[in-house]
Design goal:
about 20% strand, about 200 residues, alpha/beta, 7-stranded mixed beta sheet
Length: about 200
Amino acid sequence: MNKQFVLASSNAGKLREFSEMLAKQGIDLLPQSAFSVSDADETGLTFVENAILKARHASQATGLPALADDSGLEVDALNGAPGIYSARYSGEGANDAKNIDKLLDALKEVPEAQRTGRYQCVLVYMRHSLDPTPLICQASWEGVVLTERRGEGGFGYDPIFYIPELNSAVAELSAETKHQYGHRGKAMRAFFEQLPHYLPA
């Protein structure tokens, strides 16, 4: 069994979350930056397409099995935006703070009851760059967009994404709680359930 995967991302937050979960399975996750692999062009129109593009790009460049995720926040009042553009929502020079500011501004006239949305995560695992049947796992996490930031943890939109069932913004949750309830944790559990079928005997 190949115990080394490459993560098709340069996002330090994602690398930390995935590494913690994969380490428990005895899998060493290496960031694509360790191989000087650039980010793939995300030209897809869906989370699934973009995750496949990223996994194929990283696997092709490294020769390793690749794990990619494409995730983001869909806001109902904005017809699903920022969606696949979540990481670059605020345009050139986008970062978490600017993206949050833009989203809060876009929703400033929207009442609380209509600020519903969800985090989406699509994971794609490719055994090699020509893998015709990649493993695809998808999960979501329902919540509400707050009007101001709360909490210091997490990354992305976590400070303004509120989970009613936990009475907490995602940025206020421990890493363990986030793994347990979150979209990425759910997708990872589905991934681990199916992964043995994709590994050599």
